[in-house]
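Support request from a user on the community tier.

User writes: "When I paste my C-alpha cells into the form, the page sometimes reloads and wipes my input. The last time it worked, I copied everything first. Here is what I submitted, just in case something in the input itself triggers the reload:"
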C-alpha cells in the first residue's frame, strides 16, 4: 500500500508524520543516481553499525544527509511560494490537519518511518 501524499505533493505521511518528497523538478536520471547514492549510504551505515565502527557510521550518516539534501528531502525547500517546511511534523499539527483527518484510519497508521 502506498503512503498518502498531501494534495500539494510536498509530503507523504507515515504513521501521521509528514516526510518531505523528493524535488519533482529533478531530472529522472539524476534522481535515480541520487537514490542509488542514498541506498548505498544507508547500506554503509547499517554495515558500520553492525561492525560497531563509529567512524564509518558517522561518514555514512554524512553521505545519507548529502543525498537527502540533493534529493530535496532535507535542506532548503524545493518549492518557491514561501510556504514553510513541515517535514517530520505530525500532520494533525499542521495546515494539513483537515486533509489528514479525512483519510481512512488504516491509511493514517500504516508503515514505518523512512530510515536515515
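"...and here is what came back when it finally went through:"
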Amino acid at each position: 500500500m502506498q503512503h498518502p501524499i498531501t494534495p500539494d505533493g510536498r509530503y507523504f505521511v507515515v504513521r501521521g508524520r509528514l516526510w518531505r518528497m523528493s524535488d519533482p523538478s529533478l531530472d529522472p536520471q539524476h534522481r535515480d543516481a541520487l537514490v542509488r547514492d542514498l541506498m548505498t549510504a544507508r547500506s554503509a551505515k547499517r554495515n558500520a553499525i553492525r561492525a560497531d565502527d563509529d567512524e564509518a557510521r558517522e561518514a555514512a550518516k554524512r553521505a545519507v544527509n548529502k543525498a537527502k539534501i540533493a534529493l530535496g528531502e532535507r535542506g532548503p525547500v524545493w518549492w518557491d511560494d514561501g510556504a514553510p517546511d513541515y517535514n517530520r511534523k505530525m500532520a494533525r499539527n499542521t495546515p494539513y490537519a483537515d486533509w489528514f483527518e479525512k483519510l481512512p484510519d488504516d491509511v493514517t497508521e500504516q508503515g514505518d518511518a523512512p530510515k536515515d
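Agent notes: The reload is a front-end session timeout and is unrelated to the input. The CA atoms of residues 64 and 116 lie 7 Å apart. The chain has two domains: 1-21+83-116, 24-72. Escalated to web team.
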